[in-house]
Write a structure and sequence with these properties.
- By secondary structure, this protein is of the alpha+beta class.
- The chain contains 2 helices and 4 strands.
- Strands 1-2 form a two-stranded parallel sheet.
- The longest helix has 13 residues.
- The protein is elongated, with a radius of gyration of 20 Å.
- The mean pLDDT is 78.
Length: 115
């Protein structure tokens, strides 16, 4: 049950996956389990394969991913959640995004800049 709840405390959930499966099938299995939860604040995983680190990190539906690292929060990194863990970001310059309206203007033409 603790693997399916968003717990704020010193708790670690360790789940076996991929029993009797190929490496690729096991990866799909663990991603399906990890992304099936309602919350999505932080996820952590370890691998010796740097390609797998990128592949799995991109597919995890979490705002913070620790890939071969447990100390993921710092003042220059945005802290954001997914799903029921909330939207938006706090920390770093990304924390201002809720208060800023961005406008992109693309203007064409050949103007006389001397006027």
């Amino acid at each position: 049950a603790c693997a399916r709840e968003e717990i704020f405390g010193p708790v670690v959930s360790v789940i076996k996956f991929g029993q009797g499966m190929s490496l690729r099938e096991g990866e799909e299995d663990v991603l399906k389990q990890a992304n099936a939860v309602k919350s999505g604040l932080a996820a952590y995983f370890y691998s010796e394969d740097y390609r797998q680190l990128w592949r799995v990190s991109q597919r995890l539906q979490y705002g913070i991913v620790g890939a071969n690292e447990w100390a993921v929060t710092m003042d220059v990194a945005p802290s954001s959640g997914r799903k029921e863990s909330g939207l938006g970001a706090e920390g770093s310059h990304h924390g201002f995004s809720d208060y800023i309206e961005i406008k992109y203007i693309c203007m064409g033409g050949n103007f006389d800049m001397s006027k």
